[in-house]
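In keeping with the milestone schedule agreed at the kick-off meeting, the structural modelling team has produced records for the first pair of proteins. Each record is given below as a sequence line and a structure-token line. The laboratory manager (R.T.) confirmed that both were archived under the project's standard naming scheme.
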Amino acid sequence: MTQILLLHGPNLSQLGSRDPAQYGTATLDEVVTVAREQARAGAATLEHLQTEHEGEMVSRLHLARTDGTDAVIINAGAWTHYSYALRDALEMLDAPKVELHLSNVHARESFRSTSVLTAVCDGVIAGFGIAGYPLAVRAAIDLLDRRGP
């Protein structure tokens, strides 16, 4: 069975109460639930990690290189814009990678338009709120299907 790893960075634990105009009203649990439902529909499993600690996310990406993880979906939060450590960990991972954002980062403050992760990811989904999660799962599965056995 396909194994997808969904990663959330800092402050995303506060979904549901953090700036609903930008991030919607769905909680992190609700976001993960819709992603898991889409994964199940695509004959995949979904593991989730949310952390406020960059090193923990880097370590989890390193583990993903050998633990059977088939694809990664990452909403790195603020780390998107400056974490070269995450970028390097993603680059080492030979698996499809989808960068995901709840808000349209390109329609916000100028610093949010810059992602150091995009160049090492296969695609980006931004601005669709909670609806972006099933899209990201389908994209990850599609990328795996295109790679073949």
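The second protein of the pair:
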Amino acid sequence: MRDLSLHLLDLAENSVRAGASLVTIRVKVDERKWITLQLEDDGCGMDEALLARVMSPFGTTRTTRKVGLGIPLMAQNARLTGGDITLQSEVGKGTVLTATLDGNSIDCLPLGDLAGTVVTLVTANPYSPDFLLECTSPQGSMSFDTREVRQVLGDVGLNEPEISVWMLESIREELQPIFGGVIL
């Protein structure tokens, strides 16, 4: 993966496949430039056996291939910076993945196009699930919630071109003062 937002895209797709109705992505950068990425869903969750397997690149629930690299690669990238990853899950309740990374480390990937990642997730899944993005840094905080967008738009698919462009511009505008100049 070239950047952290691509990791989030890959991991959020797991949440979609798990039948989540809400996928929450939290990105926090503290004053020391430690980055916390959290992905929370209310999907089917994992039992203890699967939870232990998904940390290995050879553990996956997919039948189309025998490897699953999303979580192991995120763990590797976090650990390269001196950070780590935790994974909590309960069958029928969902999963929470939290990764911490030292943004000062030369090995820390750039955040990337977080707005583009969220809009890609939304437009690829225009009716369900809902996505909530919450971002915080010493410069401020923002949130973007597709449930609010759906409430205003009604039954319109969130993959309509005008809506996609508006979402992208809105998220980028809100992210700029929060992450602009804080991390690459």
